[in-house]
Design a protein that fits this description.
With 104 residues, this protein is mainly beta. The chain has one helix and seven strands. It has a single domain, classed as Roll (Ubiquitin-like (UB roll)), CATH 3.10.20.440. Strands 2-1-7 form a three-stranded mixed beta sheet, covered by helices on one side. The longest helix is centred in the middle third of the chain and has 7 residues. The model has no long low-confidence stretch (mean pLDDT 81). Keywords: Oxidoreductase. One of its GO terms (molecular function) is oxidoreductase activity. It comes from Aureimonas endophytica. This is NAD(FAD)-dependent dehydrogenase.
């Protein structure tokens, strides 16, 4: 974990929720996307495949597929367009126990 990549400037009056990312608790506000929650907490969405640096997403609108996260069951979620829900558990890498691709 590093220092936050995002800083919340407004809308701090929304209800606080808690999610779990890679097994660690992350605080969020109701209505935040997964990306906002992760980047506010100092986390990264994934590691670069071309270097050793963390990635923070790219397009921020669901087009580039740089922000995939996974549920414990292996379902992919775009962090930039998926709202965080209280109690949600997600991973920045495909869980080893999840089958991929998912059965149809």
């Amino acid at each position: 974990m590093t220092r936050p990549r995002f800083r919340r400037l407004k809308e701090t009056g929304r209800r606080a929720i808690a999610i779990e990312v890679d097994g660690r608790p992350v605080a969020a506000l109701e209505g935040d996307t997964l990306m906002v929650a992760v980047l506010l907490s100092g986390g990264a969405l994934r590691q670069s495949e071309f270097g050793d640096g963390p990635r923070a997403g790219f397009c921020l609108m669901g087009a580039c597929q740089d922000c995939w996260m996974w549920t414990p069951e292996g379902q992919r979620l775009r962090a930039c367009t998926t709202r965080a829900e209280n109690g949600m558990r997600v991973s920045t890498t495909l869980p080893s126990e999840a089958a991929w691709p998912l059965p149809a």
